[in-house]
Write a structure and sequence with these properties.
The complex is a heterodimer of chains A (194) and B (715). Chain A has 194 residues and is mostly helical. Chain A has a domain of 108 residues: Cytochrome Bc1 Complex, Chain D, domain 2, CATH 1.10.760. Chain A is 49% helix and 7% strand. Chain A has a two-stranded antiparallel ribbon. In chain A, strands 3-4 form a two-stranded antiparallel ribbon. With 715 residues, chain B is an all-alpha fold. Chain B contains 26 helices and four strands. In chain B, the strands form two sheets. In chain B, strands 1-4 form a two-stranded antiparallel ribbon. A two-stranded antiparallel sheet of chain B has the order 2-3. In chain B, helix 20 packs across helix 25. Chain B is globular and about 85 Å long. The chains are: A mainly alpha (194), B mainly alpha (715). At the A-B interface, strand 1, strand 2, helix 1 and helix 2 of A face helix 2, helix 7, helix 8, helix 9 and helix 10 of B.
Amino acid sequence: MNDDNKTTPSDPLLLNHEYDGIRELDYPLPGWWLTTFFITIIFGIIYWIHYDLSGAGPTLSQELEKDMAQIESLRNKAAADAPQVTEEALAALVQNSDAVTKGQAEYMAKCAACHGNAGEGLIGPNLTDKYWKNTDGTLVGMHKIVVHGVVEKGMPAWKGLIPDNLIKNVAAYIHSLQGSNPPNAKGAEGTLYE
Amino acid sequence: MSEATGGPLLNETYDDKIVKAFTLATLVFGLVAFIVGLLAALQLAYWPFNFNLEWLTFGRIRPLHTNAAIFAFAGNAIFAGIYHSSQRLLKTRMFNDTLSWAHFWGWQAIILAAAISLPLGFSQSKEYAELEWPIDIAITVVWVIFAVNFFGTLIRRREKHMYVAIWFYIATIITVAVLHIFNSLEVPVGMMQSYPVWAGIQDALVQWWYGHNAVAFFLTTPFLGLMYYYVPKASGRPIYSYRLSIIHFWALVFIYIWAGPHHLLNTALPDWAQTLGMVFSLMLWAPSWGGMINGLLTLRGAWHLLRTDPIVKFLITAVTFYGMSTFEGPLLSIKSVSSLAHYTDWIIGHVHGGALGWNGFLTFGMLYFLIPKLWNTKLYSMKLATTHFWIGLTGILLYYISMMASGLTQGLMWQAINDKGQLIYPDFVQTVTEIVPLYWVRAAGGLLFIAGFLIMLYNVYMTIQSAPAEEKAEAVTAPVHPKDGRHTGDGGHRKLEGMVITFSILSFLAIAVGSVIEIYPTLSLHKYIDKNAMVEPWTPLEQAGRDIYVKEGCYVCHSQMIRKLPFDVIRFGEASTIEESIYNRPFQWGSKRTGPDLARVGGKYPHLWHLRHMNNPRDLVEASLMPRYPWLEKKKIDFYSLRRKFSVMQSLGVPYGDETVANADKIAEEEAITLAAELTKEIQAAGGSVPENLERTQITALIAYLQALGQKGKK
């Protein structure tokens, strides 16, 4: 069965082994290979000592805490730098057709699934009437509810999910729906704010 | 070397009928595995490829694909190669023909059972261990039959020493048995349903000890054994280094078993276990490359074969892919690299580099070598085999590159945080639509791989057609008793190669050390649990919903493990804790996020959102890839089995009161009525029509479970 097995019998490293015609040479372990092996073992030991035995390295939880603190400080700084959201500023956006169009696009992507394509209400309440459950009908109130949500009722907090500027546009767009009387509108929920 | 002093000479024929049977089974199930894989790939590019049939949803098809590829295709290939090479390396017929055929038919029956039960949704939802308990038992029985047959052959061998290929076969048989048995310890709660005895973090650790070593001892060690036989046979060259084979064999079997926790990096698993998984994975690099070096350098002096011989092309390319995968593996096991790559398609690419390149191509090379020999003829067309090689290779490269690009893209998008401390891509679905074009490229790669395989099937068919009608069994003449390895003056490892039992025990010990050190400490879980952070176990209706989640294979796309990484925490909420999954049988931490993590999805949306989303995800998330599950509004909840399930859970240590266990079904029914009433109110307010019997349909149980996710720890 070794008809197809041509070896070089002169090779001094050829061993006296033969299995079904298969012969074995006995080259030494390649130096670079052995070095790699030893380096990974030494690295493994040092890593193990540093992170687990000695307690010198941070645990995953500590690293997470550090990263989150950094992100928190970025957020605080951003919040401090952000201009105050005022009724006037938002009202100006309602008149700005570019802002309303942008707000509409974001509304269709994020809000329409629950509030309907025309704001008529579906899973969430109708946004076109003057009845409000968790806000008071002002633009600032609408902005706040988009930012913070009503988490226990299933309205997500969109801060972080929708960029800050777009949230204002969304609030402006929703305000522009007032009195649009879309078909299939959901009945009134909450309190009437004139 | 045949021995002159080994008793009378005996002439014996090899059993090649069994090899032929396993060979044909490899080809048949290869086709099945590849086509199901292509279907799954297409579904990710364009979800309606599930034809809106529950049996073809991705959650059920993906386990079918992985099981078929690993156990049906690679499994049959291993058996073909082992039965063929072992007889020749040991100069004897297999121990017992009846056992050989029991092994063959038993294994095919298991495959058939898997092919039926997985699409029907009978699944434990533990990766590569999805098959339910009756099939698990069958696997154990068939594996023992194989082991008895193999070790029987070893005992009656007529070759004094065992060649390196045999060492790898021994390690395979022992380790797969250990892995399968320990990961399948489960308590039946129905004819085709069971709960693992392990829960939460223990289940995670045992599962990935199994899962990783299924790769190691089902897709690596047996294939290395095949490589050690078929590469020198096909090239006619001696193995490059005997001593390298010794060192890398023992290093590999000793180190591999530790590496499992690299599938759980940055999770709630205790840091020390993660560190062990990572550093042992790094240490695996060199031992793995030892095998690659021995495979590649065996071709020294015969490199021209790489140009002229398609068989050598397949084999050597396979070894090259092995080298690439075993470099990439340690790289991916570094915690920081894992934080980028884990849950993404990079892992899918990595796995397929191994599966298609290493296992696939090695199998093809072996079969092209083997089939003409078995049928006593010549290969119909070398040219077609070369064509197969190039088409297949193009397919693999397209697959690998597209998945690597997809993984990197999505991983980087998940991580991106702007200078305001906000995610740049907060919409999960946005990170999915970005990679859909790459899913088409991947499907094209898979299609090419299959096209190459079809050429092979044609080539094999024509080859077998040309076989002479009369079969000619190959025979061997050798002394009955080879010299006992202990009395030949051999020293060191050479001596060990003549001692089957000692060698097998040492192999067992090599894998037992890492297994015990890693798994044993987590069995005393109390050390890792914060008593103040304990959670409530699932209510009966929630558990019924969880069983549906498990049955549908949601874990293939949704993780339930928010890692200790800032971008995971910002996106999904506080990092998951050990306590939160402590009662989860099976754990559902997942390994891939095609959809968002669900560990804290509870309470995030109203019930109605989930109802509509399960009916058609695109009503709520326009670009979603998720299948529709409208049948959940029709199928009934299995209240009746809940008492049995809860009694099993209680016996496994879940703190349910006797009252709860005795009334589990009634409690669930009441819960369902309450939830259905809430849901009905929401539907009516929205002006929709209420599905019939809402309080009895599966969607209600599933919503109960989803709404409870992440809510159990809250006081």
